[in-house]
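User: Can you help me understand a structure? I only have the sequence.
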Amino acid sequence: MCELSVLLDKDGDSQQIAKDVVYALQNGDTLLVKDILGTPTEVSSAMITKVNIANETLTLIAHPLVGQFLKFFALLTDESSISDIEHAWAQLKKTGDELIKKKQK
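Assistant: Let's start by predicting it. Here is the structure, written out as tokens:
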């Protein structure tokens, strides 16, 4: 069986947050991983960026923009109201605009 070490990239830094992981589930804006004993580790505003079986690693990225995107996407795929979808889009766009302005400085 192939168990994975989970690495979290956040703010340009990478750290191991779990090991012997055999299960991963994206649940809204939270990513859940479980090790071989079923011990859960949850990471908010995170998504998988790379799975490397040869190195036995699962790499995640965490960023507030990821969480907002995942919430927006979830609203698009369920029976949410247009106003909820529009509100989530406005929040996502606002955060994105703020990040672009910071980069320009």
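Now, to help you interpret it: Helices lie at 64-77, 82-104. The CA atoms of residues 33 and 39 lie 8 Å apart. Let me know which part you'd like to focus on.
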